[in-house]
Design goal:
By secondary structure, the chain is mainly alpha-helical. The chain contains 8 helices and no strands. The longest helix has 28 residues. The N and C termini lie far apart (57 Å).
């Protein structure tokens, strides 16, 4: 059983991941010159879209952000902060947001897989739910932005989710407690994703010959 302190830390990190994902939605909306409503919509679908699909598929009720509206306030606050930050002529190093996104991705994968297992899903389904939780929101964001979703291109993103989900479910299968399994999974996702970011790694593309 998890300690209250660990549960609280995971919750705070979950909110941090929500803010990071929402901010990536803000950036896409800004690039497309959307109005404030467009910014909020893209921020919201990026941050909670994957978790919403997961909860609908596994039959979780109520959906997590309906049960805890703190997620919505974090999204609104991030959208407002992002629109303000866009007017500030100071830029962060290019790697800050991708690395923060990788951390949020690692945590979202574990949360999605864990929740699926709690609702009686098999290990394979839990891995799929982890991938959906981590990458589903970005996929919806890119579709709304009329772009080819990043997870369907050469970017090593969904691959990191799959790897992390397998590590988590396998660790539990072999008798590890939740916390060690969570840490192993998150480290696996971070290792794959951060390595791909800094070394500019990508998967080979599939191309049909004429």
């Amino acid at each position: 059983m998890n300690s209250p302190l660990i549960d609280q830390l995971v919750y705070l990190f979950d909110l941090f991941g929500t803010a990071v994902f929402a901010f990536s939605g803000v950036l896409v909306a800004g690039r497309l010159r959307m109005d404030a409503i467009g910014v909020i919509v893209l921020a919201a679908v990026t941050a909670i879209g994957g978790g919403t699909i997961r909860d609908l598929l596994i039959g979780a009720s109520p959906i997590f952000w309906i049960q805890d509206t703190t997620y919505l306030w974090v999204i609104l606050g991030t959208a407002a902060f992002g629109m303000w930050l866009a007017r500030v002529p100071r830029r962060l190093p290019w790697y800050v947001l991708p690395v923060a996104d990788a951390f949020g991705l690692a945590l979202f994968v574990v949360i999605g897989a864990k929740k699926a297992l709690l609702f009686g899903s098999s290990g394979m389904v839990a891995v799929v739910m982890g991938v959906i939780t981590g990458a589903g929101g970005g996929l919806i964001r890119d579709v709304l932005a009329r772009e080819v979703p990043m997870v369907l291109q050469k970017e090593i993103y969904a691959t990191a989710c799959i790897f992390g989900g397998i590590l988590y479910t396998s660790s539990l299968h072999f008798g590890l407690a939740h916390i060690p399994a969570m840490l192993i999974s998150m480290l696996g996702v971070l290792l794959v994703r951060v390595t791909a970011i800094f070394r500019h790694l990508s998967l080979p593309s599939f191309t049909l010959r004429d």
